[in-house]
Fold this sequence. Notes:
CATH topology of the largest domain: Rossmann fold
Distance between the termini: 34 Å
Domain ABC transporter: 2-235
Radius of gyration: 17 Å
Keywords: Amino-acid transport, ATP-binding, Nucleotide-binding, Transport
Number of strands: 10
Largest sheet: 6 strands, mixed
Number of helices: 10
Helix content: 25-40%
CATH superfamily of the largest domain: P-loop containing nucleotide triphosphate hydrolases
Order of helices and strands: EEEHEEHEHHHHEHEHEEHH
CATH class of the largest domain: Alpha Beta
Organism: Desulfoluna spongiiphila
CATH architecture of the largest domain: 3-Layer(aba) Sandwich
Family: Belongs to the ABC transporter superfamily.
GO molecular function: ATP binding; ATP hydrolysis activity; branched-chain amino acid transmembrane transporter activity
Number of domains: 2
Amino acid sequence: MLKLTKVNTFYGNIQALKDLSIEINEGEIITLIGANGAGKTTTLMSISGVVPPRSGEITFDGVPIHAMSPEKIVKMGLCQVPEGRRIFPHLSILENLDMGAYLREDKEGVQQDLEYVMDLFPILKERRHQAGGTLSGGEQQMLAISRALMARPRLLLLDEPSLGLAPLIIRQIFDIITRINKESGTTIFLVEQNANLALKSAHRGYVMENGVVTLSDTAENLLANEEVKKAYLGI
């Protein structure tokens, strides 16, 4: 579904991604783990067109997207939930969700998806007229995920969904991520520092160090890998 082939991305003269190659199949949950500064967020930004690669190829359903604008990539069915949530704080929950669907013209489908995300996160339904900026961190993360789902993505990119959240909320968010994958078949590419939880939720995983993928395997095998245990699982 998504394929990165020898992708090189720079910030000025600083190279963030080095000959990066990753494959994601339809229906999978894939996780990318690594330390701060490893290049995980840059990987998502390169895929979504925010920070285009200088060389290499990114294809979505066989179509090259590495030179496309972000809005065209969203139209193709690929949507990102950014690190730090970045909701519209002065807009209500409903208005934030409307923004997620701004490229769509199927009103009935939009209404169905609105009901779906309200079912996923009942707290958003209860507070639908409340300004996004007045929500707790966990509720804002729920809103950010819901806003992305309103675009009806086939591939959902999640950047550090557990960042700054309480353990109970993190568990709830990850349960919902798994539910989205199972119920709607949405493919998910998950960047996450909580490697243990990410690998327990994923089918396969990649380990990144300094812009390079150093290891890739099934999530189960990565959980059992001694190097991964020592570096990322605290075991």
